[in-house]
Amino acid sequence: MEASNTYVIDGVEITSKPPRARRKGNVPRGRHDEVEEPPSPPESSEVDIASEVQELASESHEFGYLDHPADVIITGSGKHFCRALESIILAMFGYITDTSLVDARSRRSISAAGKSLNQLLFHVLVECLYMHNGHGFVARYVRVEGEVDVQRLLQGDEPAEVTVSLYGDIYDRALHTCGTEIKAITYHGLKTQITVGDQAVTLTDDPAEGTSPDALSHFLRCMGVDSLKTAEFKLFAHVDI
Q1: Domains in the chain: how many in total?
Q2: In angstroms, what CA-CA distances link 20 with 1, 2, 5, 13, 43?
Q3: Predicted confidence (pLDDT) at residue 28 exceeds the cutoff of 60
């Protein structure tokens, strides 16, 4: 232990004590200190989705593209709304790159809701496009999970929500072709065609082309739930390039 020292200054005696040992404590972080966030959980691994990818590879979808003075129109067809929705999503990614060169090594999921078929279509495409523009992801295969109650949406009873699984990889110029950049999905020009036998309706915001409310009500009265489950759907969407 160090000895104490005594000093006399102006007649005042001052004794200095040896320094005391200080205990080291944990200093709490300040509110503005940067804290490293834990890494995000990894997406489904290639092993986890191998059986799903094998099943999806055996499926076929019908989609295409129509010319437009300013933009391009992507289309998707299929029995029931969900299959047509898968097709038009594949059309969108197929316009961005050659999806046959994309290795479906991981799975991403998006969810969207809408109060009508066209609104649901719009929100799904917006979320899928953000998966590419925001995260660089491109999908080779698509699966819409569950079913959409088309009749309830057409009647306006309640909104519907869907979850879409996208199987693909991060875009890499060294591996993937460079197609055309899609900047946005436009709500104007969205169209859904439903065909059951020799009867058909068109849902669009263009009064000159769309089916009138009275004709749509007649169509729904004639069609049962089972008929709509096997109806032919064709979806159209304008994309800003």
Answers
A1: 1
A2: 10, 10, 15, 21, 55
A3: no
